[in-house]
Amino acid sequence: MAVAGPRVDVRLGAPKLAHSPAMKLPHPSFWFEYDRAAVPQVQVNRMQSVAAFERAQRVLVGGVNSPVRAYGAVGGEPVFVDRAEGPFLFDIDGNRYVDLVGSWGPAIVGHAHPAVVEAVQQAAANGLSFGACCPLETELAEIILGAIGSGELIRFVNSGTEAVMSAVRLIRAVTGRSRIIKFLGCYHGHSDGLLVACGSGASTLGVPSSAGVPEKIASLTLLAPFNDLAVVERIFAEHADDIAGVLVEPIAGNMGYIEPNAGFLEGLRALCDRHGSLLVFDEVMTGFRVAWGGYQVVIDVQPDVTCLGKVIGGGMPVAAYAGRREVMELVSPLGPMYQAGTLSGNPLGMASGIATLKICSRPGFYESLHEQSTRLAVGLRAAAESASVAVQTAARGGMLGMAFAETPVRDYVAAQACNHELFAKFFHAMLDRGVWLPPSGYEAMFISSAHDDECIDQIIGAAAESFRVIQE
Ligand SMILES: *Cc1c(COP(=O)(O)O)cnc(C)c1O
Question: What gap in Å lies between CA 209 and CA 455, rounded to an integer?
Fold first, then answer.
């Protein structure tokens, strides 16, 4: 195996925000040199973006190809990106931003890392897609399976949506059952059965949360609050013989950043075992983001099926689902469950993923990310406190969350109760100070190994000012 997973080294304890010592990065070798001298200062003139959005809206639905990019949750006009390098984004007016989105997770080694760019360029020169087997697929598969530990076979697809959709089909194929359990506020892509919301009252039966999703399909998805094992137990009691499995983000990253309560994931594992159901971890966001492999490595709970995406493609459209041999053997061509893809396992995506994970596999990589994300979480919290703004922060590996709330957020109801109006103001104040936050208070933030002390300090400095101005 080319890359040995530092399994034991990455079992990071929960960040103890109050007691974190001042930290220094032990492994600056992850960084690459980018040209700081050449970067323009932020001018807050975004006329080119305004014009670009006008033009885009004439031909693209809402001017975007994914809804959150339209800034609906924060107001204002989306900023158009010209290029990205290391920890920075540059807009088409020439303004520079420290990026805390990282393409929603994939950019874990920084944007346009020379080793990743070179790998992709080399692959591209050999042809963009073969629609046939290539050795790079096996190489990336070996790296991933060696790291997550819970899988023996893997299938690559092109998006997280596809990975989870296929995983759900798979657990239905294995069990011959039709219902699944998911958690309120967890996002698993936009396949029909996963675009569901809570029905009325105490009902756990899903109803469509998007037009175009038939009620019959939505009703096969049962909903429980994240971190609420009692409701999951009740659902199992009512529907045990028809529950194919439980689908969960092991750390919820699509309603801010919410870690599972102690025992929650272990409890899900036990309930699935007791009822002959399968446990699916959707680690599309957390996989290779919070630790080498994913959060399952940290907590040592083994799911039956793991969904991955984002980081494993290093910025190219790559995702995957993986599991034990006897489970995955049901997938075509070995078994009766059909699933295919014209561009699946394409050489560019594989090359980008391999180059990215090789950097992530270096000793100390995740510890180093964890130190920086913790320093940022502590700094943001302190900046908020000195401006008397109530903010909760938490961090793990290269992922962190910030919520405008008085107490820690543990579920979707609490995430909805956060002050999202204040977040919108904060978002724009930060944008004007050269910091690129996710344009919604329901999103987690991501740093890369290119986010050095100077970047973190710049973010904290901008936040100190922003917390002050948003109250005026
Ligand atoms: C991003 C995400 C998805 C969907 O992935 P896409 O590549 O956007 O389709 C699914 N699950 C989780 C947990 C995600 O964060």
Answer: 38
443: Cβ below 6 Å to ligand 1?
no
Query: Catalytic annotation on 71?
Result: no
Q: Is 304 a catalytic residue?
A: no
Where do the structural domains in the chain lie, given as residue ranges?
28-112+364-471, 114-360
- Ligand 1 atom closest to Cα of residue 317: 7
Confidence at residue 18, expressed as pLDDT on a 0 to 100 scale: 34
**Which residue ranges of the chain lie beneath pLDDT 70?**
1-43, 201-202
CATH architecture, domain defined by 28-112+364-471? Alpha-Beta Complex (3.90)
Q: Is 358 a catalytic residue?
A: no
Question: Using a 6 Å cutoff on CB, does residue 187 contact ligand 1?
Answer: yes
114-360: CATH topology is: Aspartate Aminotransferase; domain 2 (3.40.640)
How far apart are the two ends of the chain, measured CA to CA in Å? 57
CA of 304 to the centre of ligand 1 (A): 19
pLDDT tens digits, one per residue of 312-367? 999 999 999 999 999 999 999 999 999 999 999 999 999 999 999 999 999 999 99
- Indicate whether residue 166 lines ligand 1 (CB < 6 A): no
Residue type, 458: Q
SS (H, E, C) 364-419: CHHHHHHHHHHHHHHHHHHHHHHCCCCCEEEEECCEEEEECCCCCCCCHHHHHCCC
Q: In sequence order, what are the residues at sequence separation of 6 or more whose Cβ sits closer than 8 angstroms to the Cβ of residue 339?
A: 155, 157, 166, 169, 331, 332
Calpha distance 120→405 (Å, rounded): 42
In terms of Cα–Cα distance, which of 222, 177, 175 is closest to 196?
Answer: 222
